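I am sending you the entry underneath: sequence plus fold tokens. Let me know what the token row says about the fold:
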Amino acid sequence: MFKMIIKNWLRNINRFILLLIGTILISGGLISLIAISESNKGTIINSLEEKWTASYDIIVRPKGNESATEKDNYMDPNYLSGLSGGISFKELDVIKDIDGVDIAAPISIIGYTTVHPIIENFQLKQDGIYRLQHKFVENDGIRNYKIDINTYHAINLDTEIDSFEAANKYDLLIENQEVIPLRGDFTILLAAIDPQAEARLVGLDQAIVKNNNSRYFQSSDSFDSYIHEGIGAEVTKLPILLSMTPSVDYTYTFNIEKLKVPIDSPNKVKTFLKDIELEGGRNYLDKLSASPVDSITFSAEEAHKILIDSFLSGSYFDYLILKEKASPLNYEVVFSPFQDQWPIAYMIDAPDNKTYREAKVYHEDMSKLPRIEPQFIGMYDPKKLNISIDPLTQVPMETYRTATATYVLNKNSNPVNPPKKVTASSDPYGYIMQSPTMLTTINASKEFLGEKSISSIRVKVVGVEDLNEKSQEKLESIAKEIENKTGLKADITLGSSPQPLLINIPKIDGVEELGWIEQPWIKKGVSINILTETKLGYSGLIICLILVSIIYIFATSFINYLSRKKEFALLKALGWKDAEIIRMVLTESILLSGIVNVISLIVLFILKSKNTEVITWGHVSFILILTIFIYIIGSLWPSYLIAKITPLQILKQGEISTKSSRFGRTRGIFGIVMNNLFGYWLRNIASVLAISLPGSLLILFMFISLRLNGILYTSWLGEYVSMEIGITHYIAVGLSFMIAILTTGEVIWQNLLERANEIALFKALGWRNIYIQMTVLIEGAFLGLLSGIVSLILGVIVVTLLYGVLSFEQYIFYSSILIINICIGVLSALLPSRRVLRIEPIQGLKN
């Protein structure tokens, strides 16, 4: 039997060489693609595992506070600071008791207050009346917000009026010593946290700046309310921890000028005061000429340090008034002016076009606003906190890290060159909120916002340290349990990554449209999506190649059967049993699979010598067993057909059937081509399937590759992973193209070789070579066209079943498979068409 197989290979040496080329292509291609795919998949998974970290795993917030942008799984990085309560302490306790919850750290955004500390006491050398120009300039990266105020100070003024009358009647501040206090105006945010939970979550206790006046919260720290004697209103004492880093960029400039007015006698002073009263107070004073005395400027860092020092030293005695509450931004979807760079764009939906956020206050009556007396216990350095600083895996942490953006387009949608960094402002209703400067204990928040004073809860879960489906399932289970037991909204943030979106800042009262900022929003579920798509994508690539290989083996086995029907019929006539012939065919397939495995091992050793971890021995065993399986499966259908052969019928029929079907009258080349296609419909169906099935797999292959890249480029983490895998991914695409082209090429090659007698007959009838070659090429093109239609239909069906409905643009894109398959048909027919031209009529008729 082995001798017969070897003799058959040698007798049909051309066919055996083609068969050998196919086996080399399958073996080398399969193991190389598996090696590349496993290497790329390993790189992606390793990169994801390195980034599988976040400051917290789940964020819990009140239901109904979701932004309109969240239907696309995007979260505003400054969103949590805009939530004013909504979660009760009872709901917090329920979350803490859920199995698997390690840390549940609540935060309450209490609101804004304004402080007026003395930045410096300016010493004057002469008595007189001085103009103090307060120039406050705040820059958020797009524009300057200016506040200019003049105050007037009378130093040792010889008059009998008291300070109250001077301030109200003459807009003068009476100073009894030669000192002008330079006061700042700071709008700062107050938030409340759980000291124990915060220490575990971000290490807040370890970020305390160590000195005599600075410490962390203690169990003895508590809030207390009393009635202030001076104002007759309730004031709440709060333990306060201060951030040593300002979250707003500003400068304070104080210009001191001495007015040029005659006040060297009591009568001249009275005359001057009378002029002020008659001429309109401060408006009159603003017009008076003055000589400059000095100018002092403080940066945000300098002024903030002075503010901290005055708090901690106890020199600041004023109570503070809480006025503005936190409120979130609302957005609406708009068309991006640059779709390629920013496919997703939103516009801030300003309420009534007055402010960017809805204006919320504790009370319209100033006398009924909450008042606090801060008990400053210490300060902390946000840079020392244990929070993720990796920009690829950041989650909203506005408590300690102010959200930022980049000013990229002006109001006319023209690029800003160079782009400008955008930061928070002190406006409570601005488009980027500042981080809290003051922190107090979470229990104190109930004094101002009631029982439901908690704005959000950051949750850490145990047992999700590794990136895998089990960790994701646990996160989803706990998030679902939180929602079921509390009715709150729980979002998984572990595995999220920023994605730059385009945000339009519209016109509001007093401020024109500013243009567009690029802001890194949080894309939820990025890591697990990339992991899932990677496994599906690369597994899909391997499955595609395996199916192409099975189709190749099936097609070549079937063509081999068609060409050897007479041989099998003769063997049956000589007394061979069906089982013996089938055993010979199966043995031939196993021998070919053995050749494939030997070549695979050679390729493997070459790859292993360059990279020992590129493929495991488990993969090797899988490939060897799979190769044998593919060849056996490919020979099953021909084996079945062999059992159906009737020796007498086949020996009578010959190769060219006299009863072949006709499509119509044979007129010209086109008629011959169509009759060839339909006259030998069985083998041509095999050819069409051999081309179309790899083509449909190619559509799936392209979709998986493009979808994976689409997933990767929707976040910074995905872009990082994409850079890690490099160009090797596209090598796999090229390799699969090659396998599809050469596989179908061999099928057409062997199909045309079986028609050598027909070509010889045409030449004997006087056909010129150019017409014979054109007939074969047109036939190949028609086979390619038919296979392209089948490829498109099958490919779209498979992709739709796996991923959903395709867009119109995707249909247009994947229709290119028609052109590809036509080219494959023509190219595959080119070489055999040239070869059969060398057949002489007498030689062809003898065969």
Observations:
- Residues 262 and 361 are 47 Å apart (CA to CA).
- The two ends are 26 Å apart (CA to CA).
- The first strand starts at residue 58 and ends at 61.
- The chain is about 45% helix and 20% strand.
